[in-house]
Amino acid sequence: MNKAIIIGRLTRDPEMRTTASGINSTSFTVAVSRTYTNQNGERETDFINCVTWRKQAENVAKYCTKGTQVAVEGRIQTRSYDAQDGTKRYVTEIVADNVTFLGGKGANVANDSNNYVGPEADIATTDISEDPFKDFGSEVALSDDDLPF
Predict the structure, then answer these.
(1) What is the mean pLDDT of residues 32-49?
(2) Neighbour tally for 144: CB within 10 Å
(3) DSSP string of 22-90?
(4) Taking the domains of the chain in order of start, what are their residue ranges?
């Protein structure tokens, strides 16, 4: 199984191209913070290349800009090509089947590209000190018609 899911912020504006046959493709890079800290107590960041096609490519190009937080779901793909200088180049990227827009630039993200703030900056907490189901009573009556299966 080849499945990849990442959450992070775009490091630059997406670049949309159109193939000779008229199919849109958008390339973008997502900065993803690692879950652990290094020896200096800092979180390291991976920069993951992504590509998406057709309508999803149009949406990413239209609605996302540098700093936008996204969740990318797809598969990892490797490919190679011959560069103009004759050397063989290898590329590893996520071919995105689904890109979910999680928000624009957060208040904590500066316009300077060197001040990247990881995805944990936008995590909101919810107060759960009070039971949200307290007014429903102690018994819930369900019929077989209410079940989705």
Answers:
(1) 90
(2) 6
(3) S-EEEEEEEEEEEEEE-TTS-EEEEEEEEEEEHHHHHHHHHH--TT-EEEEEEEEEEEEEE-TTS-EEE
(4) 4-146
**Of 36, 32, 15, 11, nearest to 24 (Cα)?**
15
Q: Can you tell me which residue has the tokens 């849109």?
A: 24
pTM above 0.85, yes or no: no
- 4-146 CATH fold: OB fold (Dihydrolipoamide Acetyltransferase, E2P) (2.40.50)
What are the C-alpha distances in Å from 18 to residues 24, 54, 55, 70? 4, 9, 12, 23
Per-residue model confidence (pLDDT) at position 112 = 40
Beta-carbon count within 10 A of 53 CB: 15
134 or 16, higher pLDDT: 16
pLDDT of residue 38: 86
- State both tokens at 128: 């759960």
Residue-wise pLDDT tens digits, 21-31: 999 999 999 99
